[in-house]
Design a protein that fits this description.
Blueprint (H helix, E strand, L loop, with lengths): L6 H15 L7 H13 L7 E5 L5 H10 L4 E6 L2 H13 L6 E4 L12 E6 L9 H11 E9 L8 H13 L18
Parallel strand pairs: 1-2, 1-4, 2-3, 4-5
Helix pairs in contact: 2-3
């Protein structure tokens, strides 16, 4: 019988997983591209207040900080202590020591309402056990009219694996009808 993990158990597992991979995380090329694209598509102004949710190794924060400048505020939050160690090393290497890092749960942000003009989250929202709570919190800390941006995996992200899987099944003689592709957000699924 399947026993789904409680949200707290899921968070603990996720934290442990990210702590384990923290030192190798930057080897994942796609996370760099997601961070770069998010930073490219978001307009920043000097003095702006920006929150980077699930900052990880501070890829987004390091890209945003030079545009916002030290007259602004850039805060990266993550619930993985080991990711924050990597984040601090990245920021220090770019002489961005003024960027704040905080160990926190994105579903329970320790900031007052309307604290930021921009809230970003790259390659992470889909890993959060309670996405609704995270989005509510992001909206809460965002000023009215502020900007929120996030990246996620598109439908084609795992396509090479899907094709390889079908080819391998075919080599085993398994007849396969065309498999439907559906969006997880579709309530009919």
């Amino acid at each position: 019988m399947f026993d789904p993990a409680s949200p707290e158990t899921a968070k603990a597992r996720s934290r442990a997983n990210f702590d384990t991979i923290a030192s190798q995380y930057d080897g994942l090329r796609f996370v760099h591209r997601c961070a770069e694209r998010l930073a490219e598509l978001t307009p920043f102004t000097p003095g702006m207040r920006v929150l980077d949710l699930a900052t990880g190794t501070a890829l987004v924060a390091a890209l945003v900080a030079p545009n916002v400048g030290s007259s602004g505020r850039v805060v990266g939050v993550d619930f993985s202590p080991e990711m924050l160690v990597q984040a601090r090393a990245r920021l220090d290497s770019f002489h961005l020591g003024w960027v704040e890092l905080l160990e926190a749960d994105a579903a329970q942000l320790p900031f007052p309402d309307s604290s930021f003009e921009c809230v970003l989250c790259a390659s992470s929202l889909m890993f959060m056990p309670d996405m609704s709570a995270v989005l509510r919190e992001a909206r809460r800390v965002l000023v009215p009219g502020g900007r929120m941006g996030f990246t996620g995996f598109g439908m084609g992200f795992l396509e090479p694996l899907h094709t390889l899987w079908l080819e391998r099944l075919g080599r085993q003689g398994v007849p396969l009808p065309p498999l439907p592709v559906r969006r997880l957000a579709d309530p009919a699924v």
